[in-house]
Specification:
26% strand; elongated; three-stranded antiparallel sheet; alpha+beta; 184 residues; single chain; four-stranded mixed sheet; 2 domains; 10 strands; Rieske Iron-sulfur Protein
């Protein structure tokens, strides 16, 4: 083989190698940009999702009720709780503690009252939120029909309060809120 033939063959091999290696570099750069764009997309999604309201966070919109010293009951106007949506309250008790609770009128016309806590998940201080005809524990995610609110006595179930209709108001004994304040 002459030097000329060898140079042609050797030069041909180099060009052939360049054909295979250059596109690979372009493909790896393209893959790197796709990965970076994907990571940026995930980051934007996570940032935006944190800005949206999250029903699993603690009840922040509870209406505060300041009780007078020696008050024997909390009175809530029925007009505040007739919508079928749970209305959340926080009672500032005379013993210096507070108790969160909710009231709702169910489709069968009954008023349901319960502490915004249960015997199992209370330590998380998250309470419940309403999802249609269910109350949902913000800690464990269990669903309870609004028609069963107040019926459970243990476990992860809203702890019922004895609310009674008295004229145009719903009356809840302060003593029940005081005993329930241990969960808050």
């Amino acid at each position: 083989m002459s030097n000329r033939t060898h140079a042609k063959t050797h030069g041909g091999r180099e060009r052939k190698r360049e054909q295979f290696f250059k596109p690979a570099r372009r493909n790896s750069n393209l893959l790197l940009w796709i990965v970076i764009a994907g990571l940026l997309g995930v980051g934007v999604y996570l940032a935006v999702s944190r800005l949206q309201s999250d029903p699993t966070t603690t009840t922040a919109s509870a209406k505060t009720i300041q009780l007078a010293s020696g008050a024997s009951e909390v009175r809530i106007p029925l007009s505040e709780v007739n919508s079928g949506q749970a209305k959340f309250y926080e009672a500032a008790l005379s013993n210096g503690k507070s108790a969160r609770f909710f009231v709702l009128k169910t489709s069968d016309g009954n008023y349901r009252t319960a502490l915004d806590a249960c015997h199992v998940c209370f330590y998380a201080h998250k309470g419940y939120y309403q999802d249609g005809n269910d109350m949902v524990c913000r800690k464990c995610g269990r669903h309870f029909s609004v028609n069963s609110v107040g019926d459970g006595t243990s476990g992860c179930h809203p702890m019922g309060l004895h609310g009674t209709v008295d004229g145009n108001d719903l009356s809840i004994p302060t003593s029940e809120l005081e005993s329930g304040s241990q969960y808050f």
